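Changelog-adjacent note: as of this version, every example in the card shows the full chain rather than a window. The one below runs 71 residues end to end.
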Amino acid sequence: MGSPERLESGARRVALTLGRSLELAYLSAHAQWCLEHGRGGYAAAAARRFAKHGVDLVDDIDRDDTRALLG
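Full-length structure tokens:
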């Protein structure tokens, strides 16, 4: 991993990915419940839209870009 900053940013991305995964799981479960109980597809549309924005944030980020953004 190298530097503490890189370790911290990796841990942050893992935590965000876990949080987004759990959020999508809850949205999907609620959408399924709504469909089974005649509540329409509103919740399913919300879950699909959330999923399209990406869940997996564990990705190598260009450190030079990060440094440039942080100033």
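Structural remarks: The mean pLDDT is 89.
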